[in-house]
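HOLO CASE FILE
Compound: pyridoxal-5'-phosphate
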Amino acid sequence: MRNPMFVYDEEMADLIFGYCRERLALDPVPLDYGGYSTPLHDVLDGLISPDGNEPARVLQLFADRLATAVISSDSPRFVSFIPAAPTKASLLFDMVVSSSSLQATSWLEAAGAVCAENQALGVISHLAGLPEGAGGCFVSGGSAGNLSALMVGRDTARIRGHQTERPRFACTEEAHSSVGKALHVLGVEPFLVAAVDHRLTGEVLEAALGSGREGAADVVGVVATAGTTNGGIVDDLAGVGAVSRRRGLWFHVDAAYGGAALFAPTVRPLFDGVDLADSLVVDPHKWLFAPYDCAALVYRQPALAKAVHTQDAAYLDVIHEAMPGSEHAAGSGAGQPNGEEPWNPTDYAYHLTRRARGLPLWFSLAVYGTNAYRDAVEAALANAKESAALISETPYLELLREPTLSIVLFRRKGWSRADYETWSAELLAGQVAFVTPTTWEGEAAARLALLHPDTTVDVVAEIVDSMA
Ligand SMILES: *Cc1c(COP(=O)(O)O)cnc(C)c1O
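Model generated. Tokens follow.
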């Protein structure tokens, strides 16, 4: 008798597809509550047992008790942290990736998936103005991207003979927390440069590096942020890139959140200089409307990354040696973006086996076209401006700065941190919005991250009214 786990069950398929259909059709997606208001261990207790359960019962339990205890990051009322807004096509195609067990580890195993992923990666690389040979892979998130890229930066410096016992990367306090974590993993110290109005500029970088300050001579690379997570602020990429070039430093651009705005002509000049990047990270699972988990990692010279990340093992030799045309793969990176040359995504980050996580984005880009992406990103930028204007006109609020991208920072006059926290909890309980406070220049502040196309200024107006 066949093991029942591997036999197609029409009834279970109907059940699951039925749930997926309902979920995909939700308009709008409800916020739901998150947290742990009812003890979930009662619900789960004894569920996993030697004999199993009816699928309908388990699904029901998931739908009623577990799914409702997750705040929907794709709800237009989710404006905390960085929301998600996956397109319908990307969500549907994610089910194809799952149903097909699609991996995209090596060319030998998965050339078709790799070609398509590289086409999507090529769109981002091209918008950034990186040269033809640029390429990389999709990783699980910006954190994984930063770690993989900085590892290449550190090792490339060593390979190029930059002698130092204590390599450092220059950055500001505004760099994402994952940059600090990555440096810690890599045994690299941050070389902190004071930001000017929350931005790293070429001028302050040059001054800090030329100052003879302790550690300046150990700097092997620089991390710039193109769209800080807290404020949506873009560093002086042209200035920082030029200093990095002149001094032979690795130039990493963390555009995990803000990189989507490369699609938007109205703000594209803010990104001038991104084309100088040695490595670039953009998270499609944030503002490029892809499902989790998906971050694009692109290197100007992929061969440098390959030299660092390729895993050697007897059983893996075949994916490197037996590749037809493998002589092209190392140096030129000609595989991208047209996917005609062999390419092993596994060689470009700290990972081996990997889900073909770029395909939902690829399908969606192919279906809707890049103009639809441009329009969706521009809509969020316009909404941020309009929301900022509304906040400016509201007497009990103070706008902290004009939004650069789609994050709006403001204060309720007279409120303490505790006031923000009470208000935030009430808003979630009332299912009005999920909006959590942040800290700005040492004090509590409200923060809206606006990227969902259905997060209209009407939703923002409700939030504003709730602070009266
Ligand atoms: C979100 C973010 C990250 C981390 O990305 P994950 O996908 O959450 O790992 C890194 N840098 C910046 C600027 C971000 O906004």
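CASE NOTES: The pocket of pyridoxal-5'-phosphate is lined by residues 82, 141-143, 176, 178, 225, 229, 254, 256-257, 283, 295 (CB under 6 Å). Confidence is low (pLDDT under 50) at residues 325-335.
CLOSED: yes
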